[in-house]
Specification:
Layout (H helix, E strand, L loop, with lengths): L3 E10 L2 E7 L8 E2 L2 E3 L6 H13 L2 E2 L3 E12 L2 E12 L2 E2 L5 E2 L2 E7 L10 H11 L6 E7 L5 E8 L1
Parallel strand pairs: 1-7, 6-11
Antiparallel strand pairs: 1-2, 1-4, 2-3, 2-10, 5-8, 6-7, 9-10, 11-12
Length: about 160
């Protein structure tokens, strides 16, 4: 089993975060930050910048590394294994597209995000990922087939 490599980018302004309401799988109907799979041989930072531009129309000027998150989901067709590189940005150029083929974009107050429908792992690491005063971290989450947490580890980097 090879991991799938991906990025997530949290754009932050005035205590708000930019999230996408997913219009297709994975995470259909859930709120997620812009991001996506890395292309073969692509650097995670370059992939994050590319995904942000493709999904939002924005070009980040100050991409900050926040975390490496490993997610193992024990689903019926066999384990699903993701390694995600999380970044945050507070400065960017470009015009935000409100809609993309991936879903609808919206700014949310950071304090309201825990009440939204989020992927199970995202719900666990969101607060730490957007806390720019906290050190970067590594996390590993393992879920059963019903997406109930089996184990979790979080360590500062």
């Amino acid at each position: 089993m090879q991991p799938r490599l991906g990025t997530l980018i949290y754009c932050l302004r005035d205590r708000q975060v930019l999230l996408m309401h997913r219009a297709k799988e994975p995470n259909l109907g859930l709120w997620v930050p812009p991001g996506g799979k890395l292309e073969p041989g692509e650097d995670p930072r370059a992939g994050a910048l590319r995904e942000l531009r493709e999904e939002t129309g924005l070009a980040a000027h100050d991409l900050r590394f926040r975390a490496v998150v490993t997610i193992v989901e024990h689903v019926p067709h066999g384990p699903d294994w993701w390694v995600l590189f999380l970044y945050a940005a507070t400065q960017w150029a470009g015009t935000l597209r409100e809609e993309s083929p991936e879903g609808r974009l919206a700014w949310w107050p950071v304090r309201e995000v825990p009440r939204l429908a989020l992927p199970p792992a995202d719900a666990r690491f969101f607060a730490r990922a957007v806390d720019l005063d906290a050190p970067p971290f590594h996390a590993r989450y393992e879920f059963d087939a019903a997406f109930r947490l089996r184990s979790a580890e979080v360590h500062a980097v």
